[in-house]
Design a protein that fits this description.
Order of helices and strands: HHEHEEEHHHHHHHEEEHEHEEEEEEH
Strand content: 15-25%
Strand order of the largest sheet: 1-3-2-14-13-12-11-10-9
Largest sheet: 9 strands, antiparallel
Distance between the termini: 26 Å
Radius of gyration: 19 Å
CATH class of the domain at 29-107 and 205-365: Alpha Beta
Structural class: alpha+beta
Number of strands: 14
């Protein structure tokens, strides 16, 4: 299991009062457990609760797709509750890229210099394919005082550390020092990939998600909230770290293509169904096209790892108040989405549920 954990990465209304409350709050108080309120499939909910940490997860959303049917459930949250899926958004941006290639709007060799005014900078020659495979040579995040201060706002106060506009991201890429173009996870790279697609198509990133993915697939609660509106909807589940401290929504415009989507279990189940049956726009993003490390390959954002003899295609995501894992066994036709209001890692729980679903199918088909 070490191989897939090695490539796990993430985008990494709080305030002084929230920080003080966190000191007083007993860690784990209010965590979901087997006695928590459940909506949807109770067996799936029980299986998920059995796999997550015993304390420090404050709401849970889960979906399972198999050839025999689809199940969804929430624990400690309404079925319509939306969770931040964090860097799973990158996998969605990869789908938008693959769809744009299929439409003939861009090619894998299209460079940033052809889309933005980058003049003779090092960044001008970066291709969209390199961005999609995390081998652009761009850093994970821009260096500088602004990034440091934003990180401290998150660590000390639970505030959103991402406060950029798309133009800020483009400017940061324009001035970035480009390193060796070898696999290296980059939030900055995926943010500018999303905005490059937006610039090419004439739609902003939230519009692209809505018109090219959410609406065609009927994903009713699969959105990119505008800055400051991540918690505005009555369906928005409150994010929390494992201690119980509340976390401000991560809802900036600049890094939306790297981690800005909120979704509910039913929308993620429909997305999984469309990916498994091949009807999803940009489904080619899942196909591995390059090595990511010695034991994993990458498509357009999506990682594929061999785990217990199976080819698992997956992505993980973390924001200040949520942790998400989304994985598919394409050969068996199974998928699992799990997201929790927590800073605890949930990829082991998600993988366990996915492998269990596969075992059930294997037993049933003999």
């Amino acid at each position: 299991m070490g191989a897939w954990k090695k490539v796990t990465a993430a985008m990494v209304t709080g305030g002084v009062v929230a920080a003080l409350i966190a000191v007083l709050l007993r860690p784990g108080a209010g965590s979901v457990d087997e006695s928590s309120a459940v909506e949807g499939d109770t067996d799936l909910a029980a299986a998920a609760v059995a796999e997550i940490p015993a304390q420090g997860v404050y709401a849970l959303s889960v979906a399972e797709v198999t050839p025999t049917g689809t199940r969804t459930a929430t624990v400690g949250a309404p079925m319509e509750g939306t969770f931040e899926i964090g860097s799973v958004t990158k996998a969605v941006t990869g789908m938008l890229y693959a769809d744009a290639v299929e439409r003939g709007e861009v090619t894998p060799d299209t460079t940033l210099g052809e889309i933005f005014d980058f003049a003779e900078t090092d960044s001008a020659s970066i291709t969209l394919e390199q961005l999609s495979q995390h081998r652009s040579g761009l850093p994970r995040l821009p260096t500088g005082l602004r990034t440091v201060l934003n990180s401290y706002r998150w660590l000390l106060l639970g505030q959103n550390p991402y406060r950029d506009e798309p133009a800020d991201v483009v400017a940061d890429v324009r001035s970035a020092a480009v390193g060796e173009q070898q696999p290296a996870y980059s939030n900055l790279g995926y943010a500018v990939l999303g905005h490059a697609l937006a610039e090419t198509t004439g739609e902003d990133y939230p519009q692209l998600v809505r018109t090219r993915l959410a609406e065609p697939m009927g994903l009713e609660r699969f959105t990119v909230p505008a800055p400051g509106e991540g918690e505005a909807s009555a369906e928005a589940v409150q994010g929390r770290e494992a201690s119980g401290r509340t976390q401000q929504a991560w809802d900036d415009a600049g890094y939306a293509p790297a981690g800005g989507i909120r979704a509910d279990a039913q929308s993620m189940a429909r997305l999984a169904e469309a990916l498994l049956n091949g009807s999803a726009p940009g489904v080619a993003a899942l196909d591995p096209t390059a090595d990511f490390d010695a034991e994993a390959r990458i498509g357009a954002g999506w990682i594929t790892s061999e785990i217990q003899g199976r080819q698992i295609t997956w992505h993980t995501g973390q924001t200040g108040g949520f942790y998400t894992w989304f994985g598919l066994d394409r050969e068996r036709g199974t998928a699992v989405f799990i997201s929790g209001a927590t800073s605890h890692e949930l990829e082991e729980a998600g993988l366990a549920l996915l492998l269990q679903a596969g075992d059930t199918i294997s037993e049933d088909t003999g």
